[in-house]
Design brief:
The structure is a homodimer. The first copy, chain A, is of the alpha/beta class. Chain A has 2 domains: 122 residues, Rossmann fold; 97 residues, Arc Repressor Mutant, subunit A, CATH 1.10.10. In chain A, 41% of the residues lie in helices and 21% in strands. Chain A has 8 helices and 11 strands. In chain A, the strands form 3 sheets. The first copy, chain A, has a 5-stranded parallel β-sheet, with helices on both faces. Chain A has a 4-stranded antiparallel β-sheet with strand order 6-7-8-9, covered by helices on one side. Chain A has a two-stranded antiparallel sheet with strand order 10-11. In chain A, β8 and β9 form a beta hairpin. In chain A, α2 runs parallel beside α3 and α6 crosses α7. Chain A is elongated and about 65 Å long. The two termini of chain A are 24 Å apart. Chain B binds a DNA duplex through α6 and α8.
DNA sequence: TTGTAACCTTAAGATTTGTTTAAGAACGGA
DNA sequence: TCCGTTCTTAAACAAATCTTAAGGTTACAA
C-alpha cells in the first residue's frame, strides 16, 4: 500500500489524477498549495508526490525544497509549461520526474509506478507491502514499528507477527489454529491451545482503547479472529 | 565521479551523447548491443545506463531485464518510437526514464543528472553513496571517517561496516543474523552467536554518550538492531 | 433455561534474547 | 619476530517474552 499526495490548486486536475491513479494499492491524499503539501508530508507517511509548480501561497519548487530538507520520497512535477528550460530547472532542483499538462492517463500511471518501484527497489530490498494500514493502525515491517492514531506502541515479536498477519488481510477471519500455524511455522512443536488467545489479549491491551470491547481485533464465535477498520 | 554507460548501435548517436554528457564528473563507457552492455555492467561499476531499445544481437529491453537481475542502477531508455504504448512498456519493465530521439542535448543532461541525484540520495548497495548522515553521525565511506556531533571517532573495520549497514537504511531493523551475513559475507564461516552483540556494544561505547541508554543504535527485542535519528 | 463449548483473563514460572566483561586467539605492521 | 590492535569466545547476568494452567465469562443451541 502506497500513500500518494496529489498537489494542485486546480480541483479538476486533482480529480482527473485521482481517476488515473485508481488502484487498490494506492491511498490518495490531496493538497491545493505548497503549504498544505508540506504539512501533509510531515503528518502522514507519504511515498510519492505529484506536485504542481504554479500554485498560490507557496509554489511547487519552494515546497519541494522544503520537503527535501527532511524527506526523500520521489517527487513528480506537474507543469503546463513544456519548454525545455522549465523541465531542466525542476529536475536540477531535486525532482525525480515531471509530467506536462495535458496528461496522458496511461503515462501518469506508468511514471508513478516506475518511481514507486525504483524507490522500493533501492530503499527496502525487494519485498512488497512493507507498510500496512488498517483504520488508525499503521504497521511498518521495515522498522518493526506500529502506531495507533499516531502513538507508537511496543509489540513483542509474536504480537507483531499476529497483528501483521491479520492486517495483511483485513476482515479475513483466521482460526486460532491457522494463526498458530502461520505465526509459529508449519512445524510448530506443540504449544497449548490457548496461547494464541493470550497473545490476542496482550495485543488488545496494547492497541485497543478498551481491551474488553475491542474495536479492531474482533472475534467471530466458533470461527476465529479478524481485524476491522474500527469504525464503531 | 560517475560511470555512465551509453549503449546504442548507431555510432553517431553514441558520439552525440558523449558530447552532450561532457562533464568532469562523468566517465563515459560505450557498448553497441545488449550483450556488450551486460558484460560491461558486470565488469565495471556502472552508475547509470543510457540504453537504446532496438539493437542487433540483443535488444535493450532484454538487456535491461538481464541487468536488473543483479543490479539496480538507473536505466534510461533511448527510443525512436515516441508512441505512448512503448513508453509505458519500457517503464513498467523496469526503466527509470526514457528519452525519445531526436534528443534535446539539455534534456539529456538534465535527465541523467536527475537520475544520478536520486540514486545517490536513496543510497544503494552498489552505488557511490559516499557520505551518510543520520542524526549527528556522519560516515564517509571514502575516507572511512566517522564523526559524532563533529568529533571524530575511531572505529575498527567491523564496527565501521556494521554502522554503515545500519546507516544505509536508517530505521530498518536488521536481525543479528542479517548483520552477520551482510558484514561478514554470505560464506561466513560460523562465528559465534553473540559476536555481533559484542561489536554492537563496542560501537555503542564509541558513538553513544551513554552506551547503556543508546540514542542511536536501538534494539527491537526479538527482531534486531536499527539506527535512529537520536531525537530523544 | 440450562449445559456446553468457545473464549477471556490473570499471573507465575520457564524460556529466550540481549548485555556486559574479560581473556585469549588471530592478525598485521614494524 | 614482537607488539599492538582487532576479533572471537565464553560465562554470568539481566531483561523481556512466551507458555502454562486454572478459573471466570460469554454465546449458542436444544
Amino acid at each position: 500500500m502506497y500513500n500518494i499526495l496529489i498537489c494542485d490548486d486546480e480541483k479538476d486536475i486533482v480529480n482527473a489524477l485521482k481517476i488515473y491513479l485508481q488502484n487498490p494499492d494506492y491511498r490518495l491524499f490531496e493538497a491545493h498549495n505548497g503549504i498544505e503539501a508540506v504539512e501533509l508530508v510531515q503528518k502522514e507517511t507519504i511515498h510519492l508526490i505529484l506536485l504542481d509548480i504554479m500554485m498560490p501561497q507557496m509554489d511547487g519548487i519552494t515546497a519541494m525544497a522544503k520537503i527535501r530538507e527532511e524527506f526523500n520520497m520521489p517527487i513528480i512535477l506537474l507543469t503546463a509549461k513544456s519548454e525545455d528550460q522549465d523541465k531542466i530547472l525542476g529536475l536540477n532542483i531535486g525532482a525525480d520526474d515531471y509530467i506536462t499538462k495535458p496528461f496522458n492517463p496511461l503515462e501518469v500511471a506508468a511514471r508513478v509506478g516506475s518511481q514507486l518501484r525504483r524507490y522500493t527497489r533501492l530503499g527496502s530490498g525487494a519485498a512488497a507491502q512493507e507498510l500496512l494500514t488498517v483504520g488508525g493502525i499503521e504497521l511498518d515491517d521495515n522498522t518493526k514499528c506500529v502506531t495507533v492514531d499516531g502513538n507508537q506502541v511496543n509489540l513483542t515479536p509474536t504480537e507483531f507477527d499476529i497483528l501483521k498477519l491479520l492486517m495483511e488481510y483485513p476482515g479475513k477471519v483466521f482460526s486460532p489454529k491457522e494463526i498458530y500455524r502461520k505465526v509459529w511455522g508449519e512445524d510448530a512443536l506443540s504449544a497449548g491451545e490457548n496461547t494464541v488467545a493470550v497473545h490476542i489479549r496482550h495485543l488488545r491491551e496494547k492497541i485497543e482503547i478498551t481491551p474488553n470491547e475491542p474495536r479492531y481485533i474482533k472475534v467471530i464465535f466458533g470461527q476465529g479472529y479478524k481485524i476491522e477498520k474500527g469504525r464503531n
